[in-house]
Amino acid sequence: MEKPTTYNTTVGFRCLRNIKKQTNDLYLVHCGQQQCPPGYTYNHKIPNEYHLHFVLNGKGSLIIDGKHYHVKKENIFLIPKDVSIQYNADMEEPWEYIWVTFDGDKATDYLTYAGLSADNPVAVSAIPIATYLPMVKKMLDTNILTLANEIRRVGYLFDLLSTLIDAQSSTRSKDKRYDYSSETYVEHALQYISLNYGHIKVCDIANYIGINRSYLTSIFKKELQVSPQEYLVNYRLRKAAELITTTNLSIQDISIKAGYDNPFNFSKMFKNTYGVSPKTYRMENSKLTEPVD
C-alpha cells in the first residue's frame, strides 16, 4: 500500500516524505533540510533509492560498506542503493545539510554525469552549495497535495541535477567535457544537416549540438572518416543531383537550394564530383518523362 505524503517541520528540521511518483525517468521521493545536533548518527537500512546530500555548514563522517569518508561544508555526498550506510555529525561542528531522495530509470546515468557513484560518493562542489538550497526549498514549499505541485517538484529535481551536471562538466578537461558519445553528437549533426543543408556553416552545426568546432571535426573524422565541411559539401551536391534528375527546377534554382549563390561555383563543384556539368548530368540521368531545359 502506498504511503501518504507527509510534511514535517520543527526547529532545525523540515522534510517532505513519500512523494507520489510522477515519471519513470526521474522522480522525487523525499527532500528536506536538517541542522543536526552534535554527534547525530543515522543508520540507513539498505536503501532502494538514491539519497543526495549537500552540506551547507559543519562537518561529519560517512561510512559506506565499511569505508570511511570525511565530509565537510561545500561537499556533496551520495548514499547509493543496496549498501549499508551510516553517517555521523561532528561533535564540535555538526553539519547542516539539504537532501533529496530520488530514483528512476535515468537516475544512475544522471549521477554518473554528475561525477557521483557508489565508488565515488563524495565530491567537492564546483559551485557554492547554497546554489542548491533554493531548489530544495521550492520542493518543500510545494507541500500542498495538488497535481500542479507534483509536476513542479519533478521540475525542481531536474533543475537541481542539471545544475549539478553543469558544475561537474565545467571541471573536466576539454576532451572530456561533453556528456554524450561521439556517435550521439554525430547523429544529431547529420539530422541537423539534412534539414538545413542549404543555408548553414560548420560553426552552425557545432553551435546547434553544443560542442566546439574542433571537437566536431574530430568526431566526424572518427565516425565518418571525413571532416564536417567535406560531409556538408558532399551532402549538398548529392541533394542537388537528386533535384536535377527528379525535378524541372532550373540549375540556378537548384544551386541556391544547395547553398551556392553563384551558379558558376556550383557547376564547378558539381563537375569535380560527378565528372560532368549539371546540365549534362540532367540529360544523361533525368527521371522525368518530359525533357527539361
TrEMBL record:
Record's keyword terms, sorted: DNA-binding, Transcription, Transcription regulation
HTH araC/xylS-type domain segment(s): 187-284
Source species, domain of life: Bacteria
Keyword DNA-binding: yes
GO molecular function: DNA-binding transcription factor activity; sequence-specific DNA binding
Gene3D superfamilies: Homeodomain-like, Jelly Rolls
InterPro entries: AraC-bd (IPR003313), Homeodomain-like_sf (IPR009057), HTH-like (IPR037923), HTH_AraC (IPR018060), HTH_AraC-typ_CS (IPR018062), RmlC-like_jellyroll (IPR014710), Tscrpt_reg_AraC-type_HTH (IPR020449)
Alphabetical list of Pfam families matching this protein: AraC_binding, HTH_18
Name of this protein: Helix-turn-helix domain-containing protein
Organism: Anaerocolumna sedimenticola
